[in-house]
Amino acid sequence: MSKQSKPTDSELEILQILWAQGACTVREVNDKLNANQEKEVGYTTTLKHMQIMFDKGLVSRTKSGKTHIYHAEVSEDDTQNALLDRFIDKVFKGSASSLMLQALGRKKASPDEIKEIQEILKKLDKDNESDVSN
Q1: What is the mean pLDDT of each run of 10 residues along the chain (134 residues)?
Q2: Whole-angstrom Cα distance, residue 20 to residue 16?
């Protein structure tokens, strides 16, 4: 994902709707946004955001009668990875361990989450052992 195409917070909200719902009209996206907001988002505001997103390559659109149907052009996984990489670099000076320690110190993890973290750590440890032996 290029630096120019990284979504703003508003664009990310729209992408999350498109990832969850699939292809949508501006009206459908606007209705979903307003279902999740305390303050109403105007239709023309949503339209403008989606036009900008089209120009940035974040969404594509097809015409169906008088209506445009919008589709996400970036995957949720790729977007999350790009934003997380940027966040780690900017906020934690590139240290994933600092991020993890901060996150784990702030919120209580469930037993299932702790088990999942332990499995990831075991895999990382195993990967490091194989890297050292090569």
Answers
A1: 74 97 97 88 96 96 94 96 93 90 85 90 86 69
A2: 6
